[in-house]
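New to this. Comment on this protein:
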Amino acid sequence: MPVFTYRGVNRMGTNVAGEREADSKAALQAMLRRENINVSKLSEKGKEFNIPTFGAGVDQKELAIFTRQFSVMIDAGLPLVQCLEILAGQQENKTFQKILNSVRASVEGGATLSASMKQHEKVFDPLYYNMVEAGETGGILDTILQRLALYIEKNVKLKRAVKSAMIYPVAVLSIAAGVIILLLWKVVPIFTTLFNGLGADLPLPTRAVIAMSNFVGSIYGLLILVFCVGAGVAIKFWQKTPLGRMTIDQLLLKAPVVGIVLRKIAVARFTRTLGTLISSGVPILEGLDITARTSGNAVIERAITMTRKAVEAGRSLVEPLKETEVFPGMVTQMIGVGEQTGAMDAMLSKIADFYEDEVDAAVKDMLTAIEPIMIVFLGVVVGGVVISMYLPLFSLIGKLAGH
């Protein structure tokens, strides 16, 4: 009989873990459920990596489509297990298919849908399974899934807007860098040899370009390239540390132009997430905790965590938000109105709609401003290198014409 390792929370709220023999995962889940243990992780000993649950295997678009289809099936009255079986069967993504089959087996074994999804936290994040749990408890799972699908779709749209803003300048700068390096490395040395053979007097721009060409072609150019790559890798690793993440996120939020867009994105994500959770029946403290963990920015996460502690101590939501000095005054004022009128979820959704439109407008304005700047930059730099190489030729031609 196989041995399984498990981890979960008992009815007293205490974390428990251990090993048990059972015929299958489903059988053990049913056994633990009878003992009032809510399982968060379960795997066969020695085979913990049989089912890949890494988030990279399932993108947000696939998750949104699954959630939308799941809500329609639940609303139509299909049994939960049958829904999961159908949706798993039509999945082209094999990773997602295995995860859904695992969730189905867990539900068949007696576990709740939210507890089953919690075992695959890289795909179904805390926001997802907490909302599913609220839907199961309130008997409104189809409505909750519709809200989740809408939330994920809006989140995908927001990410797409950011990517579209970054792709153009990064692509142009990469092409410009590649062309300039190619000119300095291969083309300029040919002209240099020609000028040395003709004994031409070289103007200052030409001498500067030749000096850069010599540097790129030397060992120092290679060392600079290695240093840049090494620095990039080091920053990437540093960003994974708490201090590095906080420092980089602070610098990004303070950056001109880009910082304004990132702050608007953070506000839109915060209000959309918290509004969706509150409207689904998730308690405010748990909602703030989930929102902090899914904020995507260390500065925003710290501000929300501080706000949560203040609310837990008995304060209102709006005052701690103001004290963080992270969120705009309009946002805190509207949240205050929502708190007073008892329509917090509706007010948060309105703020999210407003800021999502603001992000779209800001991204379009940024692209409109960047495009001519990039074209001028590319023309000046590449054109400058080419013209500097032709200046001595014009001088030589002038001398020959004078003779």
Observations:
- The longest helix spans residues 344-402.
- The first strand starts at residue 3 and ends at 9.
- Confidence is low (pLDDT under 50) at residues 48-56.
- The radius of gyration is 29 Å.
